[in-house]
């Protein structure tokens, strides 16, 4: 039997996309700060072990990580206008606690949910809206120094720094996914930026599945679908992770779309 | 009369190098967590206004920043083996408080003491000790993604992220100086790494003087002397700041060296 995967923030939007997409591909432990409502536990993970804990609680994290193969760390304050106090505690301190507990528990791999807001200020007045359009070849590729668009973005970029440190110091495999605009059924309408960084639910689930299966050391990749409009390169995700997205915001049809079922 | 410059962490090693080198070049306000001992207030800054405050104290910082031209932000836990709890509070939260107070006070410029430990894990087993030697052309130039060597380094790199954000969001001029190995009188003996990243006291003072006078937007530069051995480029500091170091660890003579007087 494969070792389980711990999913922090299991009740959040990204966690739900993952569980609904690849719930039966791994043996999950689901951790959230609040007990998960029944509708947040899809049938395919009905047997998962449930943990209720704050990610700043080192002892609880160590317990939850015992004998796990990998951690998918999503927990944190997801609000782009979150206060400094909140992101300092929930996102920065929480992520350090996750990495430190992983070292203690001997976890080999962590996939970390970073955000497009870690690099949001690359979208300067000079570059926009041109960079959102298909005839513009401006690309961020994950090697650039972050330019956070808000304090939430600062906290997400700090999580990447922590990932880099824990990889270099302890050899844990770490992948940071700068998640774009995740929506359940269809890409944002009449919002060029959102279409350029759209990530469908099924591509999101597939991408994190690749994060759990591929071989890598430390990576920062962009988590978007294969949109015609894009200013994030997905080359690295394709090459290193074997990411093979199926969706494209330009090809969305608003009726009978299969993504509604994901 | 020129507006004053606020120096946080005035009693620390970098602060003392700055005050002893360029104390009479600016009108200083000196802030430290503890009252400065008399021997930490050089004659040339005997008239400086003194502030005793923790850098996590927003109200105290706002008061200290009233009508200042610029802030040189050095305060923080300087220990490379400092605990996460300490660097989270003193370095990360403290630096965010400094930037936030600067916005409130209308400060236009902040020079921030980052560290070589923000990028210490570039010194891999494969690259060392070759990268410390003069026949090796490996260089970091300040554009690279950080690779912190410890949690102190994570905190220093997070300060850079905060600087990037506060520059992009509020237009404050920010320069981050990744300070090398600062020693008072002579470079470290028989320590190749320390010689490669040596920063003399007088070059340190001159570099921060340039940070207070030059025109820039957001910069990350390396703070080292013009050592023959080097793996940090000082090209950017020369070009943008007009940094013109006078010292070189290879040229040090151990007797009667003028640096002892700086």
Automatic annotation (TrEMBL), chains A, B:
SUPFAM superfamilies reported in the protein's UniProt record: NAD(P)-binding Rossmann-fold domains (SSF51735)
Pfam family, one: Epimerase
Ranges where the NAD-dependent epimerase/dehydratase domain occurs: 5-183
Enzyme class: oxidoreductase
Residues binding NAD(+): 90, 115, 152, 156
UniProt GO molecular function: glucose-6-phosphate dehydrogenase activity; NAD+ binding
Active site: 152 (proton acceptor)
Reaction catalyzed: D-glucose 6-phosphate + NAD(+) = 6-phospho-D-glucono-1,5-lactone + NADH + H(+)
Family, similarity comment: Belongs to the NAD(P)-dependent epimerase/dehydratase family.
Function: Catalyzes the NAD-dependent oxidation of glucose 6-phosphate to 6-phosphogluconolactone.
Entry protein name: NAD-dependent glucose-6-phosphate dehydrogenase
